[in-house]
Design brief:
Length: about 160
C-alpha cells in the first residue's frame, strides 16, 4: 500500500493505522493486538494514529490469555480509538510515550511500558515481569497473570471502567 509504505510499520500497526484512517469522524474502533503497538520505542504507528484519532481506553491482558483458543502466549492489548471530528481538538497524547514503571534491579533491567498503562493500572490485568526470551539470553518484557485471579471476571470489572457515551 503506497500510502503507508514509507512509514515502515509492522503488520499489526499497518492494519490499525489504515483502519483508523478509514473511520468516519466520531466513530469508534476496537483492536486486539500484541503489546508491541503500545510499547515499542518507535512511536511512528502511535503518532500516525494520533493525527486523526484519540485513545479512549486500552486493556492489557497477561501472557497466555489467548493460549486456549489461539495457542499463543503473547501479551495482548485491546485498544479503543475514536476518530476526531473536523476541528475537534486533540485529546490526551500521553499514550504516545513510554514510561519506566520499574527501575533496573541488580538481577533485572528496567521495565518501560506505554505511559497510558503506567497511569491507568486498573486497565492492566496482571503484573509486569521480565523473562529470558526464546530467541536468546536477552530479557523480554511480559505480563504475568495475578495468582488466583479469574481473567474473565477481572476483564468484566475493568470494562465497567470504560467511559460512557
Amino acid at each position: 500500500d503506497r500510502a503507508y509504505r514509507g512509514l515502515g510499520l509492522r503488520l499489526h500497526d499497518y492494519f490499525i493505522v489504515k483502519a483508523v484512517d478509514r473511520l468516519k469522524p466520531g466513530a469508534l474502533a476496537a483492536f486486539v493486538t500484541s503489546h508491541g503497538t503500545m510499547d515499542k520505542a518507535d512511536a511512528t504507528a502511535r503518532e500516525q494514529i494520533a493525527k486523526s484519532a484519540d485513545l479512549v481506553a486500552a486493556f492489557r491482558l497477561p501472557e497466555g490469555s489467548f493460549r486456549p483458543g489461539a495457542g499463543t502466549d503473547v501479551v495482548v492489548d485491546i485498544l479503543f480509538f475514536r476518530k476526531r471530528k473536523a476541528g475537534e481538538p486533540e485529546g490526551d497524547v500521553a499514550w504516545l510515550d513510554l514510561e519506566e514503571t520499574r527501575p533496573a534491579r541488580e538481577d533485572e533491567g528496567a521495565i518501560r511500558v506505554n505511559r497510558w498503562f503506567a497511569r491507568h493500572p486498573a486497565f492492566v490485568l496482571g503484573t509486569h515481569a521480565l523473562r529470558r526470551g526464546i530467541h536468546g539470553p536477552d530479557e523480554t518484557y511480559t505480563w504475568l497473570p495475578n495468582d488466583g485471579e479469574d481473567l474473565d471476571a477481572a476483564l468484566a470489572a475493568a470494562i465497567n471502567l470504560l467511559p460512557e457515551g
